[in-house]
């Protein structure tokens, strides 16, 4: 059912993506079309300053300018990291004109005539180059820009220098609509990929096909973040170009790691070992580069060409390794390899466009990413369902085996019940548990030099309860007292029923503190008469004797006798009392009245009091 629900949810999400994409890509009516400016010129180097402190090349009569079709990567760069471009702007036909630029490599100043109207990045004395991210740029133009000259001063130590992507004059509103239209599909696919990542991570946490679903979660998450970080709408979400490029770099660099993990899961033998080496190489690159970037050792922009060079070598190698075992793969595994064969060329094409080897054009990388992610999820779900069927069949076999051993297990259960450490009536530990637990507590108290306090409680006149109201009523009184003792029990204490109406409690508390708690419990019993159904049993009380090691005895074993003597003192003093052992006042058990009765009267109970060695 979980699989059906997940697939249904994914279908609904796909329908939502299609609706959102259809709405976002509607063409507006009556809009003045955008214009791609032409007539660009360039010159290498940086301009000197004139007497007014302005770049001298802002003078339209300055010589040395050469024509170029597009303001990017002029010929004969020869190590130059500074270039100027200029353009004579056409007539203004827009109400709110802007110059929209997809990206700039790397930092730039824009002048209109001799006025600085826009700057991207920081300039350090005209020589420093610090990467400031690759956002899109929407440069506002005044209404009187007709016929004026636009200058771009650009610095870059990257493989490319200049503008990249689209450069168009348009209405500001149309620019925003274009951004949304170009981003709608990628953002929707990104949302689906991230949902698939969470979905796969949940299944990976379930334990079945953990490695497969874990690798899929990594791939879907990386591709989803990369698509979101590359979508133009990212700047409408958060205006942090460097932050977005850091996310894009990390997710982009993790793609071959996730891909290698997925493919290695399906391969065997030598291809699998080589695939593991390839994704481990990429993982090492990610760790090294992210560390250097965060430590401000290198600019983030310089890590892309190195990675792309590595990817050109490793991505075809991954595909070759996957195809190496084509005949040994089953139908589902071949589907994964085919989807990877679709995704890999798109990834390489996107890289070639980014470096200018292919003219700028949108690459449908999201389609390949989505197809690969969905195929991996679908196949893993199929395997997950198959494993569960096999587990169900194994479960049926186990049930049959269990049935044949039922009689033997029943006999063993009877034997174990005879060794139970629980009192069946009250649910407290019984005498067997008390003997073992108290012996262990005594040894620990001696070795650690801790206090060990023992209290023995006995219900007063319990025999009269049984004689007057019956044994069922007596049992209910025992259960009530057991519940109260358990409720007042503190951490590290143990409460046991020794037998009949006698209970024991041992603790690391001081005898005075334990006596005070037992007196409060006794007061609670005195305050409210006990009932059993409609039958009132009256006030039920208990007497308690307390002894503590090392205060009263030289060893924990002696506390049983000393606590019993203190209990006898409490009984002899009128019952309904808590007495702490005192060597000077407590009589010995040998001198006790041979007619000592630990059951006693109901009703006329005395108020609780602490008896420090007095009977």
From TrEMBL:
Reactions mediated catalytically: 2 GTP = 3',3'-c-di-GMP + 2 diphosphate
Database matches in SUPFAM superfamilies: Nucleotide cyclase
Keyword Chloroplast: no
Pfam family, one: GGDEF
Transmembrane segments: 184-205, 212-229, 249-267, 279-298, 304-324, 336-357
Limits of the GGDEF domain: 450-583
UniProt KW keywords: Membrane, Nucleotidyltransferase, Transferase, Transmembrane, Transmembrane helix
Cited NCBIfam families: GGDEF (TIGR00254)
Protein name: diguanylate cyclase
Taxonomy of the source species: Bacteria, Pseudomonadati, Pseudomonadota, Gammaproteobacteria, Oceanospirillales
């Amino acid at each position: 059912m979980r699989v059906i629900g997940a697939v249904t949810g994914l279908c609904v999400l796909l329908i939502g993506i299609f609706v959102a994409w259809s709405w976002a890509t509607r063409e507006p009516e009556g809009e003045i079309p955008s214009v791609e400016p032409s007539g660009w010129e360039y010159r290498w180097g940086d301009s000197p300053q004139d007497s007014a402190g302005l770049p001298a090349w802002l003078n339209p009569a300055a010589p040395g300018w050469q024509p170029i079709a597009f303001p990017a990567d002029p010929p004969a760069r020869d190590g130059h990291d500074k270039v100027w471009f200029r353009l004579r702007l056409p007539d203004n036909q827009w109400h709110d004109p802007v110059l929209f630029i997809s990206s700039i490599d790397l930092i730039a100043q824009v002048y209109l005539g001799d006025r600085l109207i826009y700057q991207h990045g920081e300039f350090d004395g005209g020589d420093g180059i610090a990467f400031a991210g690759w956002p899109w740029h929407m440069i506002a133009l005044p209404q009187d820009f007709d016929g004026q000259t636009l200058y771009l001063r650009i610095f870059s130590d990257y493989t490319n220098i200049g503008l990249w992507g689209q450069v168009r004059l348009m209405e500001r509103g149309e620019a925003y609509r274009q951004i949304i239209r170009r981003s709608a599909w990628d953002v929707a696919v990104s949302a689906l990929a991230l949902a698939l990542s969470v979905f796969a991570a949940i299944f990976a946490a379930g334990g079945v096909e953990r490695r497969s679903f874990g690798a899929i979660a990594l791939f879907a998450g990386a591709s989803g973040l990369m698509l979101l970080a590359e979508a133009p709408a990212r700047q409408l979400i958060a205006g942090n170009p460097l932050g977005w490029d850091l996310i894009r770099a990390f997710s982009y660099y993790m793609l071959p790691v996730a891909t290698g993990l997925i493919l290695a899961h399906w391969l065997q033998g030598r291809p699998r070992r080589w695939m593991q080496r390839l994704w481990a190489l990429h993982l090492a690159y990610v760790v090294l580069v992210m560390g250097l970037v965060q430590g401000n050792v290198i600019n983030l922009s310089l890590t892309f060409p190195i990675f792309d060079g590595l990817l050109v070598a490793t991505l075809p190698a991954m595909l070759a390794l996957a195809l190496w075992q084509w005949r040994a793969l089953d139908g589902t595994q071949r589907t994964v390899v085919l989807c990877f064969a679709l995704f890999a060329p798109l990834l390489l094409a996107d890289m070639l466009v980014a470096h200018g080897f292919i003219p700028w054009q949108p690459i449908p990388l999201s389609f390949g990413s989505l197809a690969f992610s969905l195929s991996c999820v679908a196949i893993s779900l199929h395997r997950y369902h198959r494993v569960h069927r096999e587990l169900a069949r194994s479960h049926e076999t186990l049930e049959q085996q269990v049935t044949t051993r039922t009689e033997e297990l029943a006999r063993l259960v009877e034997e174990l019940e005879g060794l139970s450490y629980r009192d069946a009536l009250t649910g407290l530990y019984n005498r067997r548990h008390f003997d073992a637990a108290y012996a262990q507590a005594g040894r620990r108290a001696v070795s650690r030099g801790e206090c060990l306090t023992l209290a023995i409680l006995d219900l007063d006149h319990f025999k009269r309860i049984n004689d007057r109201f019956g044994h069922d009523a007596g049992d209910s009184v025992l259960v009530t007292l057991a519940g109260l003792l358990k409720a007042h029990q503190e951490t590290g204490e143990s409460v046991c029923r020794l037998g009949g109406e006698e209970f024991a409690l041992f603790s690391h508390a001081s005898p005075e503190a334990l006596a005070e708690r037992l007196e409060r419990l006794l007061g609670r019993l005195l305050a409210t008469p006990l009932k059993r159904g409609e039958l009132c049993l009256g006030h039920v009380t208990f007497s308690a004797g307390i002894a503590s090691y090392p205060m009263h005895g030289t060893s924990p074993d002696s506390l049983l006798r000393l606590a019993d003597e203190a209990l006898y003192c409490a009984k002899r003093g009128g019952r309904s009392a808590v007495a702490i052992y005192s060597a000077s006042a407590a009589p010995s058990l040998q001198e006790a009245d041979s007619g000592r009765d630990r059951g006693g009267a109901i009703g006329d109970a005395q108020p609780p009091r602490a008896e420090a060695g007095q009977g």
